[in-house]
Amino acid sequence: MTQTPAYLPPKPHYQILDGLRGVASLYVVTFHIFETFANDNRFTQLLNHGYLAVDFFFLLSGFVVAYAYDDRWVKMKQWDFYKRRLIRLQPMVIMGSLVGAALFYFQSCNIFPLIPQTPIWQMLLVMFVGFTLIPLPPSMDIRGWQEMHPLNGPAWSLFFEYIANILYAVVVRKFSKKLLATFVFFCACLLIYYTVFGDQGDVIGGWTLDKTNLNIGFTRLLYPFFAGVLLCRAGKLIRIKNAFWICSILIIIILSMPRIGGPEHLWMNGLYESFAIIIIFPLIVSVGAGGDIKNKYSIKICKFLGDISYPLYITHYPIMYVYMAWVINNNIQMEKGLWAGTLVLVASIALAYACLKLYDEPVRNWLKKRFLMKPVQ
C-alpha cells in the first residue's frame, strides 16, 4: 500500500512575497523593541507605524490563500481546507503559547501587575487555552494588559486570520469578481470611516475581547485580507526589475513614518494609514508577485526570510515581555537599552529558526502524512 496526496500538491511559492513577509516580521520585532521606550505615547514613538505590518500580513494572507485554493474547490471540501490551514498555522500557535508560559514569571514589573499574584495552575490553564487560540475575556487576564492571549499577545492576529479563512471558505470564495470588488470597496469605506472620522486616528488595537477592540480587529482584517483575494483573482501584477529590494524599501518607509498630525488633527494620520493599507500595500504585493529573482543570493535571502517570518512573528513577543520588564525594573534609557535590544532581535531570530527546524517543519510534515495523504492500493 502506498500513499498519494489527497489533492493537488502545493503550488510554487511567490519567492518575493515570502521575502517581504520576512522583512515585515523583522520590522515588527524592531518596532516592539523601540516601543518599549515610548511610554505608551503613540504620538512620539520613534518607529511609529510598525503596527501596520499586521495589516500587510492580512493582505499577503488573502492573496496567498486565493492563489493556493481558489481553483481547488472542485476537488476539495471545506474540512480539507480547514485541515490544511490548521496544519500550516496551528503548530506554531502552540509553540508561541509554550514559550510564553516558559518565560511568564521572568516578566514581572509594574506594567504587568498581575504576574506576581498568578498561581502556576492558572498560568497553565491559560497556556492550554492558548493552544486552541480561543480568546480570553479581560476577566481571565493574568498579565494586566487585558490581552485575549495573555501569554503571547500577537496571537490575536491569528485569531482574526482564522476568522478570515472561515469567511473565505464559507462565503467569499463563491463571490464573483464584481461582487468581491463591491465587498472590498465597502470594507475600504469602513476602514476610512474608522481611521479618518473616528476618535483614534489609527488602527492600533484588536487584541482585547471587548466591543471596541473587536471593531478595530474586524476593520483591520476585512479590507486587506479580501483585497488580497481580489488582487490575486484580478491578476494585475506589475513587473519591474529589483522588485524585492524596491518593495522592501517601500515597506520600511511606510512602517517608519512618524505620526502625522497631533491630537488635534487625528484625521491626518488616519488618512495616511488608510492610504497605506488601501493603496500602497496592494501595490507592493502586486509588484512583489509580478517580480522575478535570478540572483542566487537574493533567492537565498528571500527563502530564509520567508521561512522564519511566521515563527519569528508568533514567538518573539514573550522575549519582548522579558525585555520590557528589564527596562522598567532597571530604569534603562534608550541609549543603553538598544544594545540589549539588538540581542533581543538576534535571540528572537535564533528562537524562530530553531522552532522552524526542530519543531514546525517536522510536525507539519508528520501532520501532512497523517491527515492529507490517503492510502492507495
Describe this structure in words.
By secondary structure, the chain is mainly alpha-helical. It is built from 11 helices and 2 strands, in the order βαααααααααααβ. A two-stranded antiparallel ribbon has the order 1-2. α2 (52-69) crosses α7. The longest helix has 38 residues, at 334-371. The chain is globular, with a radius of gyration of 21 Å.
Write a short abstract of this structure.
With 377 residues, the protein is mainly alpha-helical. The protein contains eleven helices and two strands; from the N terminus they run βαααααααααααβ.
- Main β sheet profile: 2 strands, antiparallel
Number of discrete helical segments: 11
| Contiguous uncertain segments of 5+ residues | 1-5
- End-to-end Cα distance, whole Å, is 5 Å
Question: What does the radius of gyration come to?
Answer: 21 Å
The tally of strands reads 2
Oligomer: single chain
Mean pLDDT: 94
Strand line-up of the largest beta sheet: 1-2
- Residues in β-strands, percent: under 5%
Overall, the morphology is: globular
